[in-house]
Amino acid sequence: MEENYRAIIEAIGENPDREGLLRTPYRAARAMEFLTQGYEQDINEIINGAVFESSNDEMVIVKDIEMYSMCEHHLLPFIGKAHVAYLPSGKVIGLSKIPRIVDMFARRLQIQENLTQQIGECIAEVTHAVGVAVVIEAKHLCAMMRGVEKQNSSMITSVMLGRFREDPTTRKEFLDLIRQRGC
Length: 183
What we know:
two-stranded antiparallel sheet, alpha+beta, GTP Cyclohydrolase I, domain 2, 2 domains, 8 helices
């Protein structure tokens, strides 16, 4: 990967041997490895047995999960927050596992629409919940730095599974709760 970054630097007309760029191919390769580490992660290792029996059947929400991903079309970041809810069906998942699941899928070359779907389907599979909802709000540097160059636009995607899709009251409760300000 380092050699490819060196070639990119040369292709744009820069000198990869000048002082400021000497280690840039190395640093860029390490950064890309970090930003795409989701390909190497395994859901079973992330969950690590943290699914617990529970009689709770009320909505569980983790909101404002900071996330970033890389647009698969331009290799530029999109940055935002995810809100995830599920309706337990005898099992709950450890609190830290939901942001870890978000990160696992976000740290891949991705489009926001698919990212939202992947998170929802994974939470549903792991928890066997009767419903899962995911909303992601993000700003895309590919639309801010190039193309339409719109600095204040953002994209919102949602996935509603199970009862969140079937029951408008449940969906409304979720959407109302994620709009509320935190503690």
